[in-house]
TrEMBL record:
Signal peptide boundaries: 1-23
Keywords (A to Z) from UniProt: Receptor, Signal
Organism: Muricoccus pecuniae
Descriptive protein name: Tripartite-type tricarboxylate transporter receptor subunit TctC
Residues that span the membrane, as ranges: none
Length: 322
């Protein structure tokens, strides 16, 4: 028979129960707080609010979503880094987590040291979204046009140092082109200028681009992943033209460093089970997202690789936070 917590406390007070035994409380025994690094309604928040109600059901405890947007996700990350490593405060972050260390060298935390990567949840490819102002229909045509007119094709992104900006910078360096980056504060403004021909193209997440594909001369000519995108049948990968090219948005779960590995493994296993539900996978696929868990050790290696990859690019290009 399992000893009740009240009896354990009484025995501890009497000196007949060692402290470690009292700490063996099943996880989770109370609500879990999930801090999302971006604002309500954005891509990261949308995925979190699809996935974590199922996680809550599987855990038998509420998972309370709290948005802490700002400073490229660093406000949320800083809050979690300073939290107790007990599994009750978690971070839902995205690709910016691996970009920020090089983009913002004075972060109030160490992305490698202060977090325990728990699981990668989804990946979302970026896409090359061209408007009526750019006549290319394929990646080879875009490369040829950009080389013929260096500095004349403009490309919008969601901001300096964003995943989309770095995807463009990687494209330029891989293809030997000079497509000009134009940072925008918000996606709708960039999309309006794309339709009007004031901007030649946008590097965008598949999630944001899907509603525009095929409208008013706007079209996706390629995606930046390696696997086909179900919602974009027949659309090739940039890597088909530029071998080795890859730029993925990803969402993942982190805990403060020092969180017991057993808790991380439990959360990863729950996420793996949840993300295999056909209905949820279909809803995520409709957003252009590919669901699939990378467990703690694999996710740690992946994040480290992302920090290295984007750090090299940021330093080589001299990119600084706007």
């Amino acid at each position: 028979m399992t000893m009740s917590r009240r009896k354990a406390v009484a025995m501890l007070a009497a000196g007949s129960l060692p402290l470690p035994l009292l700490a063996q409380e099943p996880y989770p025994a109370r609500p879990v707080r999930l801090i999302v690094s971006y604002g309500a309604g954005g891509a990261v928040d949308t995925v979190a609010r699809l996935v974590f109600p199922r996680v809550s059901e599987a855990l038998g405890q509420p998972v309370v979503v709290e948005n802490r947007a700002g400073a490229g996700g660093t406000i949320a990350a800083s809050a979690v880094a300073q939290s107790r490593p007990d599994g009750y405060t978690l971070l839902d972050d995205a690709s910016g987590f691996a970009i920020n260390p090089a983009l913002m060298p004075r972060l109030p935390y160490d992305a490698r040291r202060d977090f325990l990567p728990v699981a990668r949840i989804v990946t979302v490819p970026n896409v090359l979204l061209l408007g009526p102002g750019c006549p290319a229909a394929t990646v080879p045509e875009l490369v040829a046009l950009a080389k013929a007119k260096p500095g004349e094709i403009t490309c919008a992104s969601t901001g300096t140092g964003s995943s989309q900006h770095l995807a463009l910078e990687l494209f330029n360096r891989t293809a030997g082109t000079e497509i000009v980056h134009v940072p925008y504060r918000d996606t709708p403004a960039a999309q309006n200028d794309l339709r009007a021909g004031r901007i030649g193209m946008i590097v965008s997440t598949a999630t944001s681009a899907l509603p525009l594909h095929g409208q008013e001369g706007v079209r996706v000519i390629a995606h930046t992943g390696r696997e086909p995108v179900a919602r974009l049948p027949g659309v090739p990968a940039v890597a088909d033209t530029l071998p080795g090219y890859e730029s993925l948005e990803w969402h993942g779960l982190f805990a403060p460093a020092g969180t017991p590995p057993t808790i991380a493994a439990q959360l990863a296993a729950v996420l793996d089970s949840v993300l295999k539900e056909p209905g949820l996978r279909e809803r995520l696929a409709a957003l252009g997202a590919s669901a699939g868990v990378l467990p703690p050790n694999d996710f740690r290696s992946f994040v480290g690789g992302e920090i290295d990859k984007w750090g090299r690019l940021i330093r080589a290009a001299g990119i600084q936070a706007g």
